TrEMBL record:
InterPro entries: Csp_YhjQ. This is Four-helix bundle copper-binding protein. It comes from Nocardiopsis codii. It comes from the Bacteria. Pfam families: Csp. Gene3D superfamilies: 1.20.1270.360. PANTHER family: CYTOPLASMIC PROTEIN, CYTOPLASMIC PROTEIN-RELATED.
Amino acid sequence: MNTVGQMLYTHPEDPEGIGAKAAACVRACEECARACTTCADACLGEEAVAELVACIRADLDCADLCAVTGRAVSQGVGRDDALLRLLLEACAAACRRCGDECERQEADHAHCRACAEACRRCERACTELLGVL
C-alpha cells in the first residue's frame, strides 16, 4: 500500500472503513490519467494521426477527469459525498468512452490496448467506490 493509501485507510473521517476502496480508486485514477496522456501523445506520433482524433480527444478528456477525481478522492470521502459521487460518475463515464475508443484502435496500436485496460480498471474502481458511498 502506498502512502496515500495508508492515509486514506486510517483517515479519522472514515468511520465506515471505505479507505481501501478510496485508495484503490486514487491509484487507478492516477494510473489512468498517465496512461491516457501517454496514449494521446503516442497517437500524435502515428502516421495516420487524422484517424486518431477521436481517440486523442477521449484520451485528453479522460486524463483530465481522472486527475481531478483522484485528487478529490484523496482529499477524503465524507466531505461532500454528492459532489464526489458526480465526479466518480463522470470519471467512470469518461473511462468507458475512452476505453471504447481505444479498443476500436487497439488492433493497430498497442498503446491504445494498454490505455483501454487502464480505463477499464479505473472505471471499475470508480464504480466500486460509488457503491460504498
